[in-house]
Write a structure and sequence with these properties.
Number of helices: 19
Number of domains: 3
CATH topology of the largest domain: FAD/NAD(P)-binding domain
Structural class: alpha/beta
Strand content: 15-25%
Radius of gyration: 23 Å
CATH superfamily of the largest domain: FAD/NAD(P)-binding domain
Strand order of the largest sheet: 3-2-1-4-16
Helix content: 25-40%
Distance between the termini: 46 Å
Length: 473
C-alpha cells in the first residue's frame, strides 16, 4: 500500500471538462487531464482494502489496488502491464465506462470514491505516449481459423484474445470503418476516433485480419464462413432500435438517435452528406425522447450544431441524487446524473409520456405529451396518465433515444437457424456456443444492449470458450 493515510490527506479531484464556451464550438474530447503528480496523488487514495469491492464490481475484473499502488509509486509501465492483463482496451473504458468500480469503492461508503476511471485512462495514455504499447504477435500459430462477425468492443476483444492464443482470426465488419458502436454511436467529444484507429493499428501488426465493407449474409454467406473456418463468433450488437409507433411517426424531422449520432460522426471525419439526408439541429427546437446516455449524446450534439433549444424527456421518474435502501453499497445505484452535455444547455423533464407527433406541411412542429405517475399495484409498478395533464412541446427535430430491443434477426441470424432467448437475443450455453455447433455469440447480440465494459468481458469469455473448443477439435 503506497500511503496508508492517502485517503485521509487527499480529497478526490476530477480532471474536469474544458469550459463550455470553448468546447461547445468543436467536437474534441471534453474531458481534461491532470498533471502526472496530481494523478499519482489521486491513486494514493486507494486503501488497498482487504476485500476490494471495486474488483468485484468490474465486469473485466480489473485488479484496481495493484495498479493504483503502482501508479502512486510512479511505476507507469508496471501499472500498464497489470491493467492490460484484464482489459484489452482501457483507452475505451477509461473514456466511456460509467465506472461501476467506483460505485463499489469502499471509500464511497462515507467519502468520495477513488478516481479509478480517470486513473485508468491516464495509465493507458502514458503507455502509448512512452511506447509501452507494442505489437506482440503470437510466437506460434495453431493452424486453426476463426471468424468474428462485428468489430465493436465484443468482437475486437474476442478476436484479440483468439489471436493471442495463436489462432488465425479474421474480423468481418459491414461498415467502412472498424469500431461498431464505438465508431458510429459515441460522439467524438467523448471518444476521439483516432483512439480507435491507434488500437486497430496495433491489432493488425499482431496479425489480426480485418475486412471492412463486408456484410455477412450479403457479400458472403455465414455458411461459407463456416466452411472456411473452424469456429465463428457473432458479435453484431443489439441494433433493433426501440421505436415509438404513435400518430405522426412518419413526419419529417423524427429520427432515431443512432441515425443522428452516426451521421454526425461521419460529418466530423469529413464524409459528405447530401442536403436531403442531412439531420441538423441549427436554430431548431430539439426534443430528445429518452433519458439515458444515448439521449445525453444527442443533447451534446444538438448543442454543437446550434440548436435553439434542447429538451430531454423521460417516461420514468427522476432518479434520486443519493443511494436508497433498495440499492445499498456496494451495488450499482441508479442515481441522477448530469453529463457534460447537460451542462451545455438542456431542459430535462421526467414522468412524461409522448402521445402524438403534430406536423405542418409534412414536418414535425409539436409533440403532444402528458404527465404520468407510477404506482405499486399487486407487487408490480404500473404507469398511469394523470388526467388533464396533456401539454404540447415545440419541436422541429425529434430524436428517439429509447434504447434497443434485441439483435437484428433478419439476414445472418435467421440464415444460420440459431435459437433465440425470450428477449429475442441469441441464446448461448455456458460456453457461449449457440444452438449451432461451432457458432458462438458474445456482447450485445447475446446479452442485449449494455455497456462497453460488459461487451469486452463477453468477448474475452467467448474467446476463452472458443479456444477450448478449437483445442479439443
Amino acid at each position: 500500500m503506497g500511503d496508508p493515510q492517502g485517503f485521509l490527506k487527499i480529497k478526490r479531484k476530477e480532471s474536469g471538462y474544458r469550459p463550455v464556451e470553448i468546447r461547445i464550438n468543436d467536437y474534441s474530447e471534453v474531458e481534461q487531464t491532470l498533471p502526472d503528480d496530481a494523478r499519482m496523488s489521486q491513486a494514493s487514495r486507494c486503501m488497498e482494502c482487504g476485500v476490494p469491492f471495486c474488483h468485484w464490481a468490474c465486469p473485466v475484473a480489473n485488479v484496481m489496488p495493484e495498479w493504483q499502488d503502482l501508479l502512486f509509486r510512479g511505476k507507469w509501465r508496471d501499472a500498464y502491464e497489470v491493467l492490460q492483463e484484464t482489459n484489452n482496451f482501457p483507452e475505451f473504458t477509461g473514456r466511456v465506462c460509467p465506472a461501476l468500480c467506483e460505485a463499489s469503492c469502499v471509500l464511497s461508503i462515507n467519502d468520495d470514491a477513488v478516481t479509478i476511471r480517470q486513473n485508468e485512462v491516464a495509465v493507458i495514455e502514458k503507455a502509448f505516449e512512452a511506447g509501452y504499447v507494442k505489437a506482440r504477435p503470437p510466437r506460434r500459430r495453431t493452424g486453426k481459423k476463426a471468424a468474428v462477425i462485428g468489430s465493436g468492443p465484443a468482437g475486437l476483444a474476442c478476436a484479440d484474445m483468439l489471436n493471442r492464443a495463436g489462432h488465425t482470426v479474421t474480423v468481418y465488419e459491414r461498415e467502412d470503418s472498424v469500431g461498431g458502436y464505438l465508431r458510429f454511436g459515441i460522439p467524438d467529444f467523448k471518444l476521439d476516433k483516432k483512439i480507435i484507429d491507434r488500437r486497430i493499428e496495433v491489432l493488425r501488426k499482431e496479425g489480426l485480419v480485418i475486412r471492412i465493407g463486408v456484410s455477412v449474409g450479403q457479400d458472403i454467406s455465414a455458411e461459407e464462413l463456416l466452411k472456411e473456418n473452424d469456429a465463428l463468433c457473432i458479435a453484431i450488437g443489439a441494433r433493433k432500435t426501440r421505436d415509438l409507433p404513435i400518430e405522426g411517426r412518419d413526419l419529417r424531422g423524427v429520427h432515431f438517435a443512432m441515425e443522428y449520432l452516426a451521421q454526425q460522426n461521419r460529418i466530423v471525419r469529413g464524409d459528405p452528406i447530401s442536403d436531403r439526408d442531412l439531420i441538423m439541429a441549427l436554430n431548431k427546437n430539439v426534443l430528445v425522447i429518452g433519458g439515458g446516455d444515448t439521449g445525453s449524446d444527442c443533447v451534446g450534439t444538438a448543442n454543437r450544431q446550434g440548436a435553439h433549444r434542447v429538451m430531454q424527456i423521460e417516461i420514468m421518474p427522476q432518479p434520486p441524487k443519493n443511494r436508497t435502501a433498495k440499492e445499498p453499497w456496494p451495488l450499482w445505484p441508479r442515481l441522477y446524473k448530469t453529463s457534460s452535455s447537460h451542462e451545455e444547455g438542456c431542459e430535462r423533464r421526467w414522468n412524461i409520456v409522448t402521445k402524438k407527433f403534430i406536423g405542418e406541411n409534412g414536418s414535425v412542429k409539436k409533440v403532444l405529451a402528458a404527465q404520468v405517475e407510477w404506482k405499486e399495484e399487486s407487487g408490480k409498478t404500473v404507469m398511469a396518465e394523470i388526467p388533464g395533464s396533456e401539454f404540447e412541446i415545440d419541436a422541429d427535430l425529434v430524436l428517439i433515444a429509447m434504447g434497443f430491443e434485441h439483435v437484428i434477426h433478419e439476414g445472418m441470424v435467421k440464415a444460420l437457424g440459431i435459437s433465440l432467448d425470450g428477449r429475442g437475443n441469441i441464446a448461448v450455453d455456458r460456453d457461449f456456443m449457440t444452438s449451432r455447433k461451432g457458432v458462438f455469440a458474445a456482447g450485445d447480440a447475446h446479452r442485449g444492449a449494455s455497456l462497453v465494459v460488459w461487451a469486452i468481458h463477453e468477448g474475452r469469455c467467448a474467446a476463452e470458450a472458443i479456444d477450448r473448443y478449437l483445442s479439443e477439435d
